[in-house]
Design brief:
Helices cover 0% and strands 65% of the residues. By secondary structure, it is mainly β.
């Protein structure tokens, strides 16, 4: 529960500047409402193709046991969403 969650998004074939935003959400955690965790979102600016790295600590420094979801969204310079990937993880 005290571990840091790490995520990496490899962006390829991008020819323009972009923003990569990662958000952790509660999927099924006892005592917590489903949805994005306040403060558990990070944005990285890239000049084009590259790697965006993210790390997250649990709410209050601890991850309560349960299921979580990580969404990574790629936005162009105008803020238009160009791609999105999701992954789930479980804390036990």
């Amino acid at each position: 529960p005290t571990d840091t969650v790490y995520a990496v998004a490899d962006i390829s074939n991008a020819t323009e500047k972009l923003k990569v935003k990662a958000t952790v959400s509660v999927d099924d955690v006892q005592g917590m409402q489903p949805g994005p965790i306040p403060g558990a979102d990070v944005s990285v600016d890239l000049p084009g193709s590259g790697t965006a790295s993210f790390n997250f600590k649990g709410p209050g420094g601890n991850w309560p046991p349960g299921k979580y979801k990580l969404d990574v969204v790629m936005l162009n310079e105008e803020g238009e969403q160009k791609d999105q990937k999701s992954a789930s993880f479980t804390i036990s």
